[in-house]
Amino acid sequence: MRLPLGARIALVVGVMLAALVAMVVLRQWPLLHGREVVLATEPVDPRSLLRGDYVILTYRASRLSTATLPLPEVADGDTLYVELRGPDHRGLWRPAAATTEKPDGDAPFLRGTVRGVWTDFDAACGTEGCRTISVEYGIESYFVPENSGRDLEDLVREGGRLAVAVAIDGSGRGVIAGLVIDGERVTREGLL
Fold first, then answer.
1. In sequence order, which ranges of 52-178 are alpha helices (DSSP H)?
2. Averaged pLDDT for residues 29-52
3. Which domain holds residue 165?
4. What residue ranges are annotated as transmembrane (predicted)?
5. Residue 44 predicted with pLDDT over 60
C-alpha cells in the first residue's frame, strides 16, 4: 500500500525534525547532566572567513608525555581515555592517567582520539626520549562574538589566564560550557 504524497512529505519532514532535535539534545546532554571541570588553555587562531570568529584551543590534556605520566601504546585514530585530577588551587583540572580502556571510578575523564605519536628527546626522559601523544577531544574550537577573538589572544599574551569550563558526560564526551578568564566565568553555553 502506497502512502499519499502529503503523508510521504509529512513523514520526511518528521524524520528531518526528529534528527535535528536529536542533534540538539545530544549536544546539550553533557551541559545539563555532565560533570563540569575547568581546563587551562591558550587560544591560537581567532578567525576564519567561512566560520566567523572563533578560537582554536589546545589543552594540557591535548599533548601527553611520558615525562609526566605513563602512557599506553597507541596509534593514530585510537581512542584514549584521559582521567583528570583536580581542581588545584586555581580551580584547574590536569591529566592524571591515560588508558585505552574506559576508566572505572568517580574521577572525571575525557574520551579523545589519538592524532599523533612521536618521540621528543628531553633530558627528563634520558637517552630514549619521551613519547608524546597528541589527542583531540572535539572541544578544540570555540566561536566568539565578532571581533573578540584577537582580544582573547591579546589577553593571554599579556599574562591573563584563559581556561575553558567543560561539561563531561559519563562516556567521556566533553562539551564546552563556557570561558573562564583569570578565574572568573565570562561566558555560559546552553539553551537554558
1. 149-157
2. 68
3. 34-185
4. 6-26
5. no
Distance CA 35, CA 44 (A): 26
Question: Domain for residue 143, yes or no?
Answer: yes
C-alpha cell at 153: 589572544
- Rounded CA-CA distance 110/148 in Å is 28
Q: Which 8-state DSSP code applies to residue 148?
A: -
Residue 133 counted as domain residue: yes
Residue 21 included in any domain: no
For residue 164, give the DSSP letter: E
- Position of cell 566565568? 185
- Do 85 and 93 contact (CB within 8 A), yes or no? yes
What total of structural domains would you count in the chain? 1
Whether the Cβ atoms of residue 36 and residue 167 lie closer than 8 Å to each other: yes
The pLDDT mean for the chain works out to: 83
6 vs 80: CA distance, rounded Å = 48
Higher pLDDT, 39 or 109: 109
What does the buried/exposed string (b/e) look like for 177-191 if buried means 16 or more CB atoms within 10 Å of the residue's CB?
bbbbeeeeeeeebee
CB-based contact 166:175 (threshold 8 Å):
yes
Q: Which three cell numbers stand for residue 79?
A: 581512542
- Expressed in angstroms, the distance from the first to the final Cα of the chain is 44
